């Protein structure tokens, strides 16, 4: 449902003079989401790397 609302919100931007703004906003949102995922889930990647190091050394 949230995706549908988001789609309806950006429909007015999908006309010729606003296309650059629309794609810039989508790119910016994607970048922010990627940074947030890295911030919140990096600890799991570090744990996995430590476990792999133990397996290789052990």
What do these coordinates show?
With 58 residues, the chain is mostly helical. The protein has one domain (2-57). It has two helices and no strands. It has helices at residues 2-10, 19-57. The longest helix has 39 residues, at 19-57. The chain is elongated. The chain crosses the membrane at residues 20-41. This is 8045_t:CDS:1. Keywords: Membrane, Transmembrane, Transmembrane helix.
Low-confidence parts, pLDDT < 50 over ≥5 residues?
none
| Beta strand % | under 5%
Q: Please give the number of β-strands.
A: 0
Write down the domain tally.
1
- Overall morphology: elongated
Overall residue-averaged pLDDT value: 86
How would a textbook summarize the main sheet?
none
Number of helices: 2
Q: How far is the N terminus from the C terminus? A: 49 Å
* Structural class designation: mainly alpha
Whole-number radius of gyration? 19 Å
- The proportion of residues forming helix, as a percent range, comes to over 70%
Order of helices and strands: HH
Transmembrane segments: 20-41
Organism: Acaulospora morrowiae
Keywords: Membrane, Transmembrane, Transmembrane helix
Protein name: 8045_t:CDS:1
Secondary-structure topology with pairs:
Layout: H1 2-10, H2 19-57
Spell out the key features of this protein.
about 60 residues, mainly alpha, about 85% helix, elongated
Q: What is this entry, summarized?
A:
This is 8045_t:CDS:1. The chain has about 60 residues and is mostly helical. The protein is built from 2 helices and no strands.
